[in-house]
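Please check the following.

. . .
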Amino acid sequence: ASWLERAAGDRAAEYEEIIAYHLEQAYRYREELGPVGEEDRAVARRAAELLIEAGRRAAARGDVAAATTLLERARRLLPPGDPVRLELIPDLSASMSHLGRLSDVKTYLNEALHEAAAAGDPRLEMYALLAEMELRLATNEGYSTREGAELARRAIRLFEELGDDQGLVLAWGALANSHWIEARWASMREPVERARAHARRAGDRVRTSSYQNWHLSVDFWGTTPAPEGIRRCEEALEKAETRYDRAQILRNLGSFVAMRGRFDEARSMEEEARAILEDLGSNVSAKNISFQTGPLEMLAGDPVAAERELRETFDYLREIGEKGWLSSIAAFLAEALYTQGRYEEAERYLLASKEAANPDDGSAQSGWRTVMGKVLARRGELEEGERIAREAVAIIERTDEIDHQGQAWLDLAEVLHLAGKAGDARMAVEEAVERFERKGNLIMAQRARVLLEDFSSPA
């Protein structure tokens, strides 16, 4: 292994995994023979360093499965409490999460937190705390976005004092994530850009591109009109450096394109994104493409296809214990079932959404209420249906998610129409039209205008 490393010279990076493997095996064989000494531990450390470099390169090209395997092997070569071992916390927990191994992430972070606390290094302990916070928000384990934002701000102060760019990437990213859950998209811009700037300084290629893609998500879910969003996505697509970046850009571009009625084109984009993510082993992201394809099929007027997309993802997320995405997926699935007239089945998924949703998740908390209001109204519980539908509008209006605002107003209009409140129903549809037009969602704006004409026609 040493000979190969010397012989490779400037091309050593090409052989890192091979060299690391031989060093790793040499250490393991020595370990089997009895107690190891300093020289043996130095071999293990060199193997770990090479595995970490190879793992981070795999992550940079989006190969999540390879990155996870390499980083786990590196961790096992280093003793508990070792600073290099603890430095792996952000990358290893993130890659394991992308694979859908949330129970393994929980076990790993419990161990890492104890190791970091015992090591007495506040920087590394904060790495572990931030990773744990991300996991607890994803699994909805009693962690509020307010607590998350407070921890992120505390981390920012600590890492600024230490001059730790990598830590600042994580801290600003955690603050952005708190705003994401609250659907406060405009508020995300600054922390996302701060995280991206520190990632560039830290040489973190993965997070530099990731936070650039977050800007496109802000465009889609926030107030950016669809034509401008399409332009920004197409511009980003031309500059995409990895297949993973391409997939993340395509999923946003496909959603924007669907708003303009270009459904076949949108489907093609989403399918390409899914195929890339599946090939890279990014299991959660691949399954979560239905976050785009489900609503796409609803826009295209095919609730059966939407159900098919969403049900598979719901089952997968429930199996791995994820709740952040599941809460919205369940509400989308309920809408697809409601549109097919399957009200009782829709209600079961609405209850699943309600149970899974973080109390601070503006989109999910509004989402299950919009459909529940309609289900109750169809059942004759008009007063309760209207109350819940109005709650949904009030919640989503506190966000800047204008497309979902339009949907909430449209659903309220349906409840009011069923209750015989024609004037109020027309006013609600007008609110929906304004928001869909502002977003550039041609399909929903047209549907809302047709509904307005129907509601305005004499009975």
User: Anything to note?
Assistant: DSSP finds 25 helices and no strands in the chain. Residues 288 and 433 are 28 Å apart (CA to CA). The two ends are 85 Å apart (CA to CA). The chain has a mean pLDDT of 93.
